[in-house]
Specification:
It contains 6 helices and 8 strands, in the order βααβββαβαββαβα. The protein is α/β, with parallel strands linked by helices and about 170 residues long. The strands form 2 sheets. It has a 6-stranded mixed β-sheet with strand order 2-1-5-7-6-8. It has a two-stranded antiparallel ribbon with strand order 3-4. A hairpin with a 2-residue loop joins β3 and β4.
């Protein structure tokens, strides 16, 4: 059985680009995601494949991290054919939008029939997102991930229209 693929934005400024979404340090996106899944580090590493859309930290813009949408869309277009038949989770709206999946809601599963792909989007776990500041949202995240890990991810799948979901490669 193929592992679920987690796709993050880019390596953080203090993380190893060769180890995307690695759960150390605990304050990294991977560390926080592991916490929001409610699982051990070993289970996290055994259960998920992990990649970043961008291979380098794009820098800062004021206090916020930069996210170069044009570069991300080009990277997503190159990765998309490799996702056929996979179960994929986009970490954050920027990643989902880069792949052309702007209609995805948080913490729900959809199905893309053309690529035979199950996909979901979760709020980004870098620490910049305020979504996880709410205890109710943290519990929703844990419930979502526990349902997925236990194999109930296909309940409530929505069928996505193919033409709506194909990303634009124009700048």
């Amino acid at each position: 059985m193929t592992k679920t693929l987690l796709i993050g934005q880019a390596p953080g400024p203090n993380t190893d680009p060769a180890r995307p979404l690695y759960p150390f340090p605990a304050s990294s996106a991977g560390g926080r995601l592991c916490k929001f899944m409610g699982i051990s580090v070993d289970e996290y590493l055994e259960t998920f494949d992990r990649v970043n859309l961008l291979q380098e930290f794009p820098g800062k813009e004021g206090k916020e991290d930069k996210f170069p949408p044009r570069l991300a869309k080009v990277a997503a277009a190159a990765i998309l054919p490799l996702l056929e038949g996979r179960t994929v989770v986009f970490l954050g709206r920027n990643v989902a939008n880069s792949f052309g999946y702007s209609a995805l809601g948080f913490l729900s599963w959809d199905y893309h029939p053309g690529l035979r792909m199950q996909l979901a989007c979760v709020p980004h776990s870098s620490g910049r997102s305020h979504w996880y500041n709410s205890p109710e949202n943290v519990q929703k995240s844990i419930d979502f991930w526990q349902d997925h890990i236990r194999g109930r991810k296909t309940s409530g799948l929505r069928l996505l229209r193919t033409e709506r979901m194909m990303p634009s490669t124009s700048p």
